[in-house]
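Our collaborator T.R. sent over the components below with a one-line note: 'Predict the complex.' Nothing else. No constraints on interfaces, no templates requested, no preferences about which chain binds where. So this is a plain run: every listed entity goes in together, and whatever single assembly comes back becomes the starting point for the next discussion.
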Amino acid sequence: MTGLSFDLIALQLFAGLALGAIYVLFAIGLSLIFGMLTVVNFAHGAFYMVGAYVGLYILMLGGNFWVCLIAVPLVVGLFGVVVERFLIRPLYGRGIDYPLLLTFGLSYVMVELVRIAFGKSGYPFDTPEILQGAVDIGVGYFPLYRLFVIGATAVVLLALWLFLEKTSFGLIIRAGARDPQIVRVLGVNVAQVWLIVFGIGTAIAGFAGLLAAPLQGVIPEMGGTILAEAFVVTVVGGMGSIGGAVLAGLLVGVVVSMTSLFAPEMAKVSIFALMAVVLIVRPQGFFGRAGLMS
Amino acid sequence: MTRRITTSGSISRRRLLATAGAGAALAASPFRINLLQAQEANIKIGFPVPLTGPYGAEAQDQVRAAQLAIAQFNDGGGLNGRKAELVVRDDKLNAGEAATRSLELVEQEKVNFVVGSLSAAVQLAINNVTKERGIIFNSISQSDAINEAKDFSKYTFHEALNPHMTAGAVGRYAFPKFGKKVAFLTADYAYGTEMLRGFLEAGKAFNIENLGDVRHPIGATDFSTLLPRLQSLKPDILCICNFGRDQQIALKQATDFGIKKTTQIIAPLLSHASRVAAGPQAFDGVIGGCSFYWGLEDKFASTKAFNAAFSKMYDGKLPTDYGALGYGGVRTVLEAVKTAGSVDTDKVIVALEALKYDDYKGPQYYRKCDHQSVQSVLVIKSKSKDMKNESDVFEIIGTEEPNEANLRSCEELGHKA
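Returned assembly:
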């Protein structure tokens, strides 16, 4: 194929960063929960899918997309809180594979329940009217909605960073992640802190699912593919590092985009090739703390 | 002593005879009932389709319409009173699962015929089992390979269209209308490449210029990194050669990227279920092919009758493309059973080969060399407004009438003439 122009490469790079921002959004909830609770949430994709379906349901009831942006994280986060309180909490201190297996099973239950409630076939999810169409970004046309998703991801990241780094509650969360025993001795209710962290992580997963719905529609199995991608981003960035997840997400996006340009059939594999290379050179990922899994 | 022994001996001999006689009678009678049952038992049609998985909605349509064909056969008196029965199995869209289920249908359920499948690859797995066991298999899913001498057997029939016919019809419609500069977005697996080949072969007659073929892995969820490249090629026509959810997402994202403003998007096959799942926005203006659309009722009495019967059986619903194939696949086999007057495989094959039928979409017949159903291909365009009912999603904009010239020739497929 001919026609490799500067504009095309620039547009391709931009498309990669935009896709990377979506990967960051997919991964951030997973990374947060792992970093703070050392729980590998295999139901992350299912919470993401539930987010899309909650959005769909709100639209069916006559709500609009902007209502969904607020309501979906609240509903999914609340559901996450219930899951943590009654299912995950009894498993703390039992080793990393217990909550992993539990959430793995839970994801199947969630997908099956959604199939029963909404049916097996998918639903359309139209892009909100004001965000439809493509805009000229200098090197070519790019969908307005994708630019909106990048903005929304930035807002989520900023809010999360401010919350964790600048508030006293964020300080407790970080301290609890380092040494829960000392924090407990200091009179902090660690269980409550973990409850809230799990709620925030799942709320972000649901939010990501809602934002993904106008990009690809809604089906019960939609969480499956993103779970793999979110794991790659989390592992490459360093399990539990939010900064690492951002860097890794953008990098994965650019790698996929550039592979798509030169060898599109390899694009899916390139993600895992990147992960393999990073893990050989730096087994803990970019910013991961060594020994978190042990 | 001796007498006693003799007496008892004689009694026992008499008893033995009596018992043996009764036993023989007992043994004989159920045997005879069995034999009678074997003759009078239902005609069983095995129906492996992917009820679970991404094509579950289409598979359910196939089952519903196939049940209608069974009900009509039975209401019409069956084969001299002998009824038909559908034995449905879930092949989970997996070749291995399909082979196991087909074997089970043949060995345990003792089905007389197999109809079904919804995947280019899975139907070949079913076909392998049925041709080895000498059971007629009527495939109701697209494939080019099933026509080829390598996979074909005298037991293999293909009621569905194949990618060569479908892509060909759509190409012959679109290339002269929208331009010669054509780009392709193709799912990287057998069905994707079969469709691509169909377009390219049809394009030869119009001297189309192939600007490039971008491949994507099957099951892709994001096309944003492939679309800028396709857009930069500035094609008149973009052919999207994929199916199911891949097609839904590709069309949705191509719409978002504004490709429809400058380029006509065409697809070899537009499925009713995909269009409903992806919504009118994503499919708006897209042109593709299909084997059946309920709107054909304006043209054919058989379509009208099929729509009415389906709608009566299923609360006013109208049949879909894949549903119609389920109906056609089962109905033709049962028609052949009636003409043959028997379920004997060889007699039914002869009857199927001789069949000229118009059951739901106008005239059709099975070509002798590869048992491909020669039939019309509809060219349809997706609607986003003026819809009369929830099934009113496409508009028929062209029809390629049944014509063997639009099929690959028997020699090309490796059949001896």
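Summary for T.R.: The interface with chain B takes residues 1, 3, 5, 7-8, 11-12, 15-16, 18-19, 22, 120-127, 132-134, 140-143, 145-146, 215-217, 219, 221-222, 225-226, 256-257, 260-261, 264-265, 267-268 of chain A (CB under 8 Å).
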